[in-house]
Amino acid sequence: xxxxPHLRRIAIVGAESTGKSWxxxxxxxxxxxxxxxxxxxxEVLRNWCxxxxxTPEPHEQMAIAQAQADAVLAVQQGTVISDxxxxxxxxxxxxxxxxxxxxxxxxxxxxxxDTTLVTGLDLPWVADGLQRDGPQVRGPVDTLVxxxxxxxxxxxxxxxxxxxxxxxxALLALGLPGEDEAxxxxxxxxxxxxxxxxxxxxxxxxxxxxxxxxxxxxxxxxQA
Length: 224
Hints:
This protein is an alpha/beta fold. The chain contains 9 helices and 5 strands; from the N terminus they run βαβααβααβαβααα.
């Protein structure tokens, strides 16, 4: 199936605990508010680890990478935002298992994206069960990601900043206007309302300390 005429693919890659999922969700929310048709593709590895109760073995990495690619390619119109890509699977295979065989497939898939955003290392590391090894791996993984993109000649933009600033830096990297403070606060309040039980909000993927503070302050207040 050939892609639609208005298809735009955005990749978000980067080391662990650098806000990839948070950024993907917030970008999708902003673009949807602006009238865009948006599909957010979550990280396949996260669901895989949750179902298997462990991290994958070397021989299982290719299937995970291919599932991530297939989920992106299944979207044929509008804007697709991919929370990680097969490139991250290739990088971790390289880092953990000294296996570089996934790079050709991963980089060929990466070429299909219109824009690649790399999340910077300026967020604090947060544990997340099986998903994360520790802060010591972030620097080497970030280096491997950038080296792979540089070797293949692919352009990318690094996104830094906290909360609203990080989101706006990503929007600007996409050639889009930033979100004003009033709209940002409205969405944060809506997300806080989601945390009151109407719909689950995954805070372990969030990099906004204000949002987290509101959530736990509200929980403590109800308990009191």
